[in-house]
TrEMBL record:
SUPFAM superfamilies: ACP-like. Its main location: cytoplasm. It is found in: Cytoplasm. Belongs to the acyl carrier protein (ACP) family. The gene is acpP. This is Acyl carrier protein. Carrier of the growing fatty acid chain in fatty acid biosynthesis. Pfam families: PP-binding (PF00550). Keywords: Cytoplasm, Fatty acid biosynthesis, Fatty acid metabolism, Lipid biosynthesis, Lipid metabolism, Phosphopantetheine, Phosphoprotein. It comes from Chitinophaga skermanii.
Amino acid sequence: MEIIDIINKTNAFLVEEFEVAPESITPQADLKETLGLDSLDYIDLVVAIEGNFGFKVKPEDFQGIVNFQDFYDYVIARVKQKELV
């Protein structure tokens, strides 16, 4: 899967799942603030990632994720890792 496809797919499910305007999702925007995430929303986010990309997410994976670029980098790395298996 190409990087741009991963980003587009990620943005599509974030817009749908968290009901945010597509233009509010920019690489430097704060993930938690933009999506209005609370602790339960993180569970929804994990379920969405796992359902859309087919890999398991660990809670500690989110520790270094601050903005959307961090989030994209994480998803891209995991998808690429899965493709190698």
